[in-house]
Specification:
single chain; alpha+beta; Aminopeptidase; nine-stranded mixed sheet; two-stranded antiparallel ribbon
């Protein structure tokens, strides 16, 4: 993978070998003794494909000019001294928590935001219709909330590789379902009878990439959004 910069002295290219970083956060550190209610927050996973600026400096002797150019052109985390190539944020909702709260998926996830409600209502549909042979039994609901690759890196496989790596190397449980909202509805526009095109596609390329990875397109019967979904073990077997 190459990092390229235009300096006063000309064009520079650095060949780098990125690594994956993983962080997980949950405010309920006393689980399972915590008191449950519908406002309980999920587990948040943050996965990044990064290049260490310290290693880059050791190999190429980065000057102040080059450092400033890197900050202008790329995503740079100065606190961690890293250049970020790609990043993914994913929320996790363990089914055991939901069962102890004795609520539906949609009731719980609606307390987070509208996108999570969309995922929660689809999870309810899966459970009620007994799809996928009880995928949430001792498992979790995973929602890929955001995944992005910096525009300077045009490798089509980065997003999918990051998803695969996450579930193969970081997520230990092989039961559950992974969701991604690929198409949503502009409800404000939908209320206008003169407007026909109410669907908003987030990323057509991402839909195709996820399908190649095994995700299926699902139109949620409750809220009409198009969701991509796959069982966890299928990602871990790729």
């Amino acid at each position: 993978m190459l990092i390229d910069l235009i300096t006063l002295a000309g064009r520079l290219e650095y060949e780098v070998l990125p690594s994956v970083t993983y962080e997980t956060y949950c405010e309920f550190i006393d689980f399972p003794e915590v008191d449950y209610n519908s406002d309980i927050d999920p587990i948040v996973h943050t996965i990044k494909l990064v290049v260490s600026l310290e290693v880059l400096n050791d190999e190429y002797e980065i000057t102040d000019e080059i450092e400033e150019l890197l900050k202008k052109k790329y995503w740079v985390d100065e606190d961690r001294d890293q250049l970020i190539i790609a990043k993914m944020t994913m929320t996790e909702f363990p089914n055991t928590w939901r069962e102890r709260m004795d609520v539906t998926w949609s009731y719980w996830l609606d307390a987070i935001d509208g996108d999570h409600f969309v995922i929660g209502s689809r999870a309810d549909e899966i459970s009620e219709r007994e799809l996928y042979d009880n995928p949430f039994d001792n498992g979790s609901l995973y929602y890929i909330k955001d995944i992005a690759v910096h525009d300077s890196f045009d490798n089509d496989a980065i997003e999918i590789d990051l998803i695969r790596y996450t579930f193969r190397d970081f997520i230990q449980n092989d039961t559950g379902v992974v969701f991604y909202i690929a198409q949503t509805i502009d409800h404000n526009v939908e209320k206008n009878p003169d407007t026909k095109n109410t669907r908003i596609v987030k990323d057509k390329d991402m839909i195709e990439k996820l399908e190649r990875c095994g995700f299926s397109r699902i139109f949620n019967s409750t809220v009409k959004d198009m969701i991509m979904e796959i069982e966890v073990y299928k990602l871990q077997d790729l």
